[in-house]
Design brief:
By secondary structure, the chain is α+β, with helices and mostly antiparallel strands. The protein folds into 2 domains: about 90 residues, Beta Barrel (Elongation Factor Tu (Ef-tu), domain 3), CATH 2.40.30; about 70 residues, PRC-barrel domain (SH3 type barrels), CATH 2.30.30. It has 7 helices and 12 strands. The strands form 2 sheets. Strands 1-2-5-4-3-6 form a 6-stranded antiparallel β-barrel. Strands 10-9-8-7-12-11 form a 6-stranded mixed sheet. A hairpin with a 6-residue loop joins β8 and β9. The radius of gyration is 20 Å and the shape is elongated. Keywords: Chaperone, Cytoplasm, Ribosome biogenesis, rRNA processing.
């Protein structure tokens, strides 16, 4: 787990090319500001993996909705393969020095209460899904379901990390609509079982 004074930025996935590029799972809603050549990240990797304590970003590009990163000292696919699963972190002090009031890290958001402007409970933030066009807040609803809320100012006008809450103003039916469209929920259904039930 990251140190309390550090924020998770991304997790490295598989190599992408022969030039040492890797795919990453993004954990910040402002990757353009984080993935700047020359930026240095603290690494968290398996013991004995040989991954350096810090990695310096050489290049970053968005390809078909996926961020591809290359690091100094990692020139080829073999080196990139050794980074798989590594977590990239930044110190909280770096974030504070940048005075980045518009960007949020998933670690900051998870666990916040989601309420409407009147204070009524809507759920709890359980994740952040970063997309090329729009980010989504993942909410665990009071009834146990999961909903996906566009992370835009019109729908999420207030993020109060110190107060432990986010204020939502979702259009009528948004939470129910996104709950119904949860792909994981649909994937868990057994089509054969549904067919058998329909025939009874």
């Amino acid at each position: 787990m990251p140190d309390p004074q550090q924020y998770l930025v991304a997790r490295i996935g598989k190599p992408h090319s022969l030039r040492g590029e890797v795919t990453v799972q993004v954990h910040t809603d402002d990757p353009q500001a984080r993935f700047v050549p020359g930026a240095t990240f603290i690494t968290e990797a398996a013991p004995g993996s040989g991954v350096p304590r810090e990695l310096t970003l050489h290049s970053a590009r968005l390809h078909n909705g996926t961020w591809l990163l290359a690091f100094e000292g990692i020139p080829d696919r073999t080196g990139a393969e050794g980074l798989r699963g590594t977590r990239l972190l930044v110190d909280a002090e770096v974030v504070e020095d940048e005075d980045d009031e518009e960007g949020w890290y998933e670690d900051e958001l998870v666990g916040l209460r989601a309420v409407d402007p009147d204070g009524a409970e809507l759920g709890t933030v359980s994740g952040l899904e970063v997309g090329p066009a729009q980010d989504l807040l993942v909410l665990t609803l009071p009834g146990g379901g999961t909903a996906y809320v566009p992370f835009v100012e019109e729908i999420v006008p207030e993020v109060d990390v110190e107060g432990g809450r986010v204020v939502l103003t979702p259009p009528p039916g948004l939470l129910e609509l996104n709950l119904e469209q949860n792909p994981d929920e649909n994937a868990d259904q057994d089509p054969d079982r549904n067919s058998e039930q329909g025939g009874e």
